[in-house]
Amino acid sequence: MIKSPSLFSALVIRTLTLKTIGILDRFCCTMSEGSKDEPTAKLMKRANEENEDSAERVQAAKRIKAEGVHAEDEKKYPKKKVVLLMAYSGKGYYGMQRNPGTSQFRTIEDDLVAALVKSGCIPENHGDEMKKMSFQRCARTDKGVSAAGQVVSLKVWLIEDLIEKINEHLPPQIRVLGLKRVTQGFNSKNNCDARTYSYMLPTVAFSPKDYDTGNIAAFRLEPETLQRVNRLFAFYKGTHNFHNYTSQKAANDPSARRYITEMSCGEPFIRSNSEFAVITVRGQSFMLHQIRKMIGLVIAVIKGYAKEEVMERSWGQEKVDVPKAPGLGLILEKVHFDRYSKRFGGDGLHERLEWEREEEAIKAFKEAHIYPTIVETERQEGSMVNWMSTLHIHDFEATATETQDNKGHKQDNAEEGNDSD
């Protein structure tokens, strides 16, 4: 029997309603489960954020603590501008100045900065950025060159027993010998009026070119030869164009003009059965290799490889082949601050930058670390004698388009990376 249309419609509607309710129930359950996961996710996210915040707070606390330590040091030991008087034997070092990115080439400044940090007179995080401490060396000495009177300027915490604490962290061949307060604007390079170098060499360097160098110990320098040596060195006094005495310097470059006030060779003396002498030169500033070439050319003239007129010609516009003496015997003796001392030395706050009280310590360091190294290295390696054997290669007569020394200047600069002023 067929039901009436109205009854059939009611049954269909009821069936659809029940299905719809089931679907809605399942949807609500799904939504309910999703609602339960959402707070959990939020909690986990918040926990991660709190962990990150905690790590940041730890790092911030460390920074604050470090800054607090620095602040305490600032209060207890005020940061002041000073100069340090240094002495060092340059053997085994690639010059004075640090060369960032070339850690295999150890320099004097590498060891100095490490000692400054370890002694506690500069912040540890400034070790790689010494500009923050206004650090400046007076002279950049070349590879193997020593110093008895180097001066560096920088800001330090004036801790107790500062010099002793720095020296505790330095090797014996590097020493800080003195300290003086200077003005805030002082710069050891820019305020320097002049520099004095010495050069210790075996006197056999002035022997005739046919002398038997196998018997170095027997050679003695004649007084007449010493007089001629000093007459030639005197030619350098005054202002000259030294473009031939360095690398990559054009004849018309104004910076090649340098002022020399003194140059002479002292009386010979005996060390380890061989005769040595010391040449002293003072000038406003010096270029890379300049002093070694000044000495090298005089040796070439004395030995008879070159005529005296080559010295005058070397200051002209043409290119002249000037030999470069070994670096072993070169020593930065003293740096001069006459104008600064005159202006500020008597103001009641600062001292004159002179080191009379340190003279004995300077002399003792040279006798213990510099002179013996030069003598022993010369005896073992024969650097001067080996160099003398190359003098015949140089062409002192012709105008050289590329000199013997300049052929290898790129390698020299790669190794040394410094100039002398």
TrEMBL record:
GO terms for biological process: mRNA processing; mRNA pseudouridine synthesis; tRNA pseudouridine synthesis. Residues 401-421 are annotated as: Disordered. Signal peptide: none annotated. Keywords: Isomerase, mRNA processing, Nucleus, tRNA processing. It comes from the Eukaryota. Residues 404-413 have a biased composition (Basic and acidic residues). It is found in: Nucleus. It is an enzyme of class 5 (isomerase). The active site is at D142 (nucleophile). One of its GO terms (cellular component) is nucleus. GO terms for molecular function: RNA binding; tRNA pseudouridine(38-40) synthase activity. Gene3D superfamilies: Pseudouridine synthase I, catalytic domain, C-terminal subdomain, Pseudouridine synthase I, catalytic domain, N-terminal subdomain. CDD domains: PseudoU_synth_PUS1_PUS2. Its main location: nucleus. Monomer. Forms a complex with RARG and the SRA1 RNA in the nucleus. Belongs to the tRNA pseudouridine synthase TruA family. Pseudouridylate synthase that catalyzes pseudouridylation of tRNAs and mRNAs. Acts on positions 27/28 in the anticodon stem and also positions 34 and 36 in the anticodon of an intron containing tRNA. Also catalyzes pseudouridylation of mRNAs: mediates pseudouridylation of mRNAs with the consensus sequence 5'-UGUAG-3'. Acts as a regulator of pre-mRNA splicing by mediating pseudouridylation of pre-mRNAs at locations associated with alternatively spliced regions. Pseudouridylation of pre-mRNAs near splice sites directly regulates mRNA splicing and mRNA 3'-end processing. This is Pseudouridylate synthase 1 homolog. It comes from Seriola lalandi dorsalis.
